[in-house]
């Protein structure tokens, strides 16, 4: 069922999950829409929603309006971004109530299979589960996350679940901003658990760690070197390690890996104050370990809430996010300015050849940038 066909009342007709593509710009229902990458025939332009309609629709659990609000958030058009921020500001009092869990691991570790098994268990227990993704590569390759509608087929059909593929948009900073704001919209819509999947290992893990309460690292057993090239820094981000595919002939190897990781974790600095990460095993095929890891996540929430660490992390994340957005904005404005773009190649080449000191190069670019801004301000 498409979003356009969905009734405004989710009670009048049971809603089957619609997995919606991210966008690079434009918004369905807003002027200036541009459709990229999809070959489907153009659909009739929908009426522009008002701020009040967005807020009421999201708060009322209308999946169609939630999807349109997320598309608005993902748009890079300045007019859309302005309305999106108004929507977020109005919904902010209704956010923060969900347990936010980040999930990462090397390709092939079984993230989607695990998330579907965990999500189904939680939905059957009466929770409302949103699954988001952070995948900067998706803007180039339409990354594997965009296959979640088929890789999580059972979960995608559950009425208590909502899966949103990674927004496209180039830089990790842009993708992370859109994912973080999408998380807030899902909370305002009443989802009490948000699972944030990240692809591979690298900078996206650090971005996701900065927007979730609990960070889970999935690992494989029996793959030679048990560290599998995972950087120590990534392991130190985790609040728990989970060895997947612990079934059949691989179960003994998973238990051995669990013992090895348990020993190694003793020597690493915990990611969360007052919490000691542990290693667990699970099988998404048999269901073993799924309930156990969720009990660990609930125990984490209860203990860190009681100690004040949970609330302190949320405050720190909000403050850090302010500085992150400022840095991203200034970086984009600096490197996107025509004066900088015009001078940078020659200055960079001079630095590489050793004919210009790095500090001089940086000062030259910054002075050129600031002079250009002053000229723009005076109209000269």
UniProtKB/TrEMBL annotation:
Coiled-coil region(s): none
Superkingdom, natural source: Bacteria
GO CC annotation: cytoplasm
Signal peptide annotation: none
Molecular function terms from GO: GTP binding; GTPase activity
Family: Belongs to the SIMIBI class G3E GTPase family. ArgK/MeaB subfamily.
The protein, known as: LAO/AO transport system ATPase
Species name: Roseiflexus castenholzii (strain DSM 13941 / HLO8)
